[in-house]
Amino acid sequence: MTSSTKLDSFFQELTAPDSFESKKHHLEVFTSRHLEKSNRIVLITSGGTTVPLESKTVRFIDNFSIGRRGALSAEYFLKQGYAVLYLYRHRSLQPFHHRIDKNILDILSVDETNGTSIKVQAPFVESLAPVVQQYHRYHDNGMLCQVDFTTLDEYLLLLRAACEALRGFDKSALVYLAAAVSDFYIPAAQMPEHKIQSSNGKLQLSLEMTPKLLKPLVKDWVPNAFTVSFKLETDPKIMISKARGALENYKHQMVIANLLHTRRKEVVMISADLEEKVVLTDEDLAAGKEIEGPLIARLVQIHAETLS
Amino acid sequence: MTSSTKLDSFFQELTAPDSFESKKHHLEVFTSRHLEKSNRIVLITSGGTTVPLESKTVRFIDNFSIGRRGALSAEYFLKQGYAVLYLYRHRSLQPFHHRIDKNILDILSVDETNGTSIKVQAPFVESLAPVVQQYHRYHDNGMLCQVDFTTLDEYLLLLRAACEALRGFDKSALVYLAAAVSDFYIPAAQMPEHKIQSSNGKLQLSLEMTPKLLKPLVKDWVPNAFTVSFKLETDPKIMISKARGALENYKHQMVIANLLHTRRKEVVMISADLEEKVVLTDEDLAAGKEIEGPLIARLVQIHAETLS
């Protein structure tokens, strides 16, 4: 996928859900408001994407990511004063909300002493109050806009719309691509209409590579933004070289490389002139520290240097 | 997969997560308590299963089902006096909880007038109070036990453990298999260790058929229970014949057949001597009725007839 003609025809074949126009409008209202105020803004993508195997869909290929990196990063960007446009997989983690680690019904009680009210039970108030307060502080002040997606098609269409809405921010926009996007998909024309019947013992699937949208994103959609992508690998031997390869290929500003098994305590920020580790010790982790804290603080510094 | 030797070796190759023994213990405590009280009991499976494509997992094949049928059915079984063992996909819908259709943080407020408390905001109390009360009525009385799973392997191991724990109930146990289980999987021995590298343009996957566990379930695990499976199709021409075929093949008590696009307003109960539709009108749907209400009421009648 190199020519823009090929890319145009790829986009024309994507299936936009009915809700697309209203979601697009919603995010454009958010970006316009912050553009007027000259705020710094970050677009965060989070969670995985779903690739249907049949056109009347029963089955998917999914690289479901619960979206922990994206949800935590959103919180730390808000604390740094950024407006956050959070583009996330439906049912994946959301900023602040993910800190409720229980079935909420277990900690709610109905009180009928003085009319009916519903309260959080006393033992849970201390830990939950700051979560509720922080959420309202940012959300009610219009600093956080959440837009959800499910399929790969919906993700790609919303990503393009969001990037185009950020173009006016010029270098003040940061694009932080933490979503785990499917590398493969089945083109609509090759998809069976009905549920694949499973009688002949094996299922042979042939998937095409998803075009790398990072190239048009950097070149055309939001060329002056500070764009950060992620590289999640399981094999430490190839992690850095894969990250450097992506940087050379897509000409964006930074790759954050991490290994599946150590991703919560070590990441490496890689740019043209930088290779910098952010590390938490086991003591930090035990004390409840989150690597997104120092990572976002440092990233915001680096972004600020490009603005001066 | 016909011989029990083949099945044994299939089970031996499954990967049990660390939490398996504690979940198994948890459900056994629940079933023992209800066996002592001679309660009727239903095992409900709900949600989809995940099939890893790599052993250090980054990608899955998923037939993610949000689990609406299972969650609603659990509520109506509770109302009919059954103890409910709810085996559900992690992050899929849970009984009562799924009726909170908002980000809970949007409707919670911190009140610091008289010490700190957290309350549900007034406009949402009327609709949420019965949800909280019903959940506590059944959960706090020990009538509802929820156990979650993610992968196909975990699902199969928990399903077998749950069925074996139900054996003592004899005909008083109902097994209600509403989960959307992956028909295909990649055997551990054929799985690459690291993330599949996506450079050569196409991804060719070859998946094996998942053994049909319904056969040993009916024959060996819980032979006297009233077992109900589901048949979800997209093609109306084959729905009934596929359901009849399953019934003949597995020798269980009932198949509930439904089409993807009408599943909320029409299902067909099919047993050896029965083919009975349960239908909601558009007016019923508009009034907020749920097809699981009449479906479970009728199913409980049919179950009762087998006990007399």
Largest sheet of chain A: 8 strands, mixed
Biggest sheet, spatial arrangement of strands of chain A: 7-4-1-8-11-12-13-14
Number of strands of chain A: 14
Please state the oligomeric state of the protein chains shown.
homodimer
Pfam family, one (chains A, B): DFP
GO molecular function (chains A, B): ligase activity
Organism (chains A, B): Elysia marginata
Protein name (chains A, B): Phosphopantothenate--cysteine ligase
Explain what the structure shows:
2 copies of one chain form a homodimer. Chain A is of the alpha/beta class. Chain A has one domain: 3-Layer(aba) Sandwich (Rossmann fold). Chain A is 39% helix and 24% strand. The first copy, chain A, is built from 10 helices and 14 strands. The interface between A and B is large, with 62 and 63 residues. Chains A, B: One of its GO terms (molecular function) is ligase activity. Chains A, B: Keywords: Ligase. Chains A, B: This is Phosphopantothenate--cysteine ligase.
